[in-house]
Amino acid sequence: MNAPARPVSAGKTRVCPHCKAVVLESLSVCPGCRHHLRFDAEAAQRQEAAIRALEVEGSVCHPAGEDPCEYSIVVTVRNAQGQQIARQLVAVGALSSGEHCTVALAVDVLPTRIAEPAAPKSEPAVLAVVPETAAPPLTGRRLSDGTVLMPPGMKPRR
Fold first, then answer.
1. Which of 60, 89, 107, 118 is in the most buried spot, having the most CB atoms within 10 Å?
2. Domain that holds residue 99
3. What are phi and psi of 44, to 5 degrees?
4. Residue 34, by phi and psi: left (phi above 0), alpha (psi -120 to 50) or beta?
5. Cα–Cα distance between 110 and 44 in angstroms, integer?
6. How far apart are CA 40 and CA 15, in angstroms?
7. Cβ neighbours for 19, distance < 8 A, ≥ 6 positions apart
8. With helix as H, strand as E and coil as C, how does 54-113 read?
């Protein structure tokens, strides 16, 4: 038995019980550790409807024969007015001669609610008259006057 999905306000956060990262409360899977957080169908549909709005990947290569160097990876988020709303030091490290590291950044955008699915275009039912002496069809519904209603794409068996 599925419990009804509780309403979630846009932007509300919670702590992932697995990796302790701050994530959106509406997510069904943590984007950090990829563990499941919720098991309701609506949350899963929302996450499936996510759009990859930005994806950047790049490598930092340290030339061979050079002294080791250090690196810091910082992510900064700004709103439409240019105000900094978040700044996070993600990782630090060092590269020796000839080493490299790759950094990937992805931004997913999720709808705040799932749109109602469009009604599927139904094909008209195919009517076929089958004589009473014929064997019953593989599928279909026989009406009292002997007419057999068949699903679209099915032909009556003779």
1. 60
2. 51-110
3. -65, -40
4. left
5. 11
6. 18
7. 30, 32, 33, 35
8. EEEEEEEECCCCCCCEEEEEEEEEECCCCCEEEEEEEEEEEECCCCEEEEEEEEEECCCC
Q: What is the dihedral of CA 29, 35, 40, 46, to 10 degrees?
A: 10
What SS3 class is residue 138?
A: coil
71, β-bridge pairs? 93
Domain membership flag for residue 102? yes
Question: Tell me: the pLDDT tens digits for 130-149?
Answer: 555 544 444 556 666 666 66
Count up the domains in the chain and report the number: 3
Task: Give the H or E element holding residue 24.
Answer: strand 22-24
pTM value?
Answer: 0.54
The strand pairing partners of 19, in sequence order, are: none
CA–CA gap between residue 125 and residue 136 (Å, rounded): 18
Residues 59 and 80 in one domain: yes
